[in-house]
UniProtKB/TrEMBL annotation:
Signal peptide start-end: 1-18
Protein name stated in the entry: Apple domain-containing protein
Domain of life: Eukaryota
Keywords (A to Z) from UniProt: Signal
Cited PANTHER family: APPLE DOMAIN-CONTAINING PROTEIN, CHROMOSOME 15, WHOLE GENOME SHOTGUN SEQUENCE
Organism lineage string: Eukaryota, Fungi, Dikarya, Ascomycota, Pezizomycotina
Length: 334
């Protein structure tokens, strides 16, 4: 039986650190990889993004070629992404209607929206974590920008349980964020409607990586002369981690990573690292890579009797960069 260790909460790293020791984070690889990106549709009531896990596994194992992983060998953007697109913009086109359960407020401004007591009171009353999830944060005035965006749904009521159920049903969904969002009632794309009356949407967004206080930084943005704002934002992370076939259940190490031990003969058992910047947080990517590396190493074992390195366990986590300007940027699954 092989071991696996999962560290679902993000592990932070300062990317201006000195060159790493052999088992520390491979900063050259991380810096060479593109930052994960996503695009949220506007003016619609739902957006769905799926990832082709079979293609991700194939890409992860296709480049096995040596005992030590090449630092430049980074997964490229090959995931199949399908998204519902917003309709082509028309001048002052009506946008999605808001939640009927949300109250009106006066004056109709982002500042007043942020002051309304109704929204945080509902979020607080609904804060308990549903079965299979743990609470990441409560009542923030921002939405999450985590790893691996999987789309969103809109609700008529602030329904944490339904949000959790839908996340659980989505392959690869690791966390969700539910919040109130102040949106324009019409597309503010013309001077005649640059600051229209608002609607309040209740959004449930889904993520293939963990939502955290640190990555919940989207406070809204202007659309024309209209200011989008967010409040009553709660986040939850799954406790239902899938264990790859042939491995023991993983152990959560929080914001810590492992150092591979030396074996009884004094050999360093560390076999390298890999960064996945596309797709969802998926332990099977690591297990497949581990097994493929073992297969290659056994087939190309040294002729002098030196034992081939065999992959017995792996440690995986979401790597987050704390940049010099104070911003937090998810780097991918390490």
């Amino acid at each position: 039986m092989r071991l696996s260790s999962f560290a679902l909460p993000a592990l932070a790293a300062n990317l201006v650190a000195a060159l790493p020791a052999p088992q520390e984070i491979d900063f050259d690889m991380v810096l060479a990889a593109p930052d994960p990106t996503y695009s949220e549709a506007v003016g619609v009531t739902a957006q769905t993004i799926t990832y082709n896990s079979a293609a991700m596994v194939a890409e992860a194992t296709a480049s096995i070629s040596s005992v030590s992983v090449d630092a430049s060998d980074v997964l490229s953007a090959t995931a199949v992404v399908q998204a519902k697109r917003a309709a082509a913009s028309n001048v002052c086109q009506a946008q999605a209607a808001g939640a009927t359960s949300a109250p009106t407020y006066s004056p109709d401004s982002a500042a007043q929206f942020a002051k309304e007591s109704y929204f945080p009171s509902v979020a607080s009353a609904s804060a308990a974590a549903p079965s299979g999830y743990t609470q990441a944060f409560v009542n923030m005035q921002a939405s999450s920008s985590a790893f691996s965006y999987m789309g969103f749904d809109t609700f008529d009521t602030y329904d944490v349980a339904t949000c959790a159920t839908r996340c659980t049903a989505k392959r690869g969904c690791v966390s969700f964020n539910i919040y109130f969002e102040r949106d324009p009632s019409v597309n503010p794309d013309d001077s005649s409607c640059s600051n229209p009356p608002s609607v309040t949407m209740i959004k449930c967004s889904y993520w293939g990586g963990p939502v955290t206080v640190q990555n919940t930084v989207n406070v809204g943005q202007p659309r024309g002369g209209f200011e989008v704002a967010i409040t009553g934002s709660n986040g939850y992370v799954t406790t239902q981690l899938n264990t790859p076939s042939g491995y023991q259940d993983g152990v959560a190490y929080g914001a810590n990573a492992m150092n591979a031990p030396y074996d009884a003969q004094g050999y360093n058992t560390f076999m390298g690292s890999k960064l996945f910047t596309q797709g969802t947080w998926d332990t099977s990517l690591c297990s497949q890579y581990c097994e493929s590396q073992t297969t290659y190493n056994l087939k190309t074992a040294p002729k002098d009797g030196t034992p081939a390195k065999v992959c017995k366990f792996f440690n995986t986590y979401i790597l987050t960069a704390l940049k010099a300007d104070g911003s937090v940027v998810t780097q991918g699954q390490y």
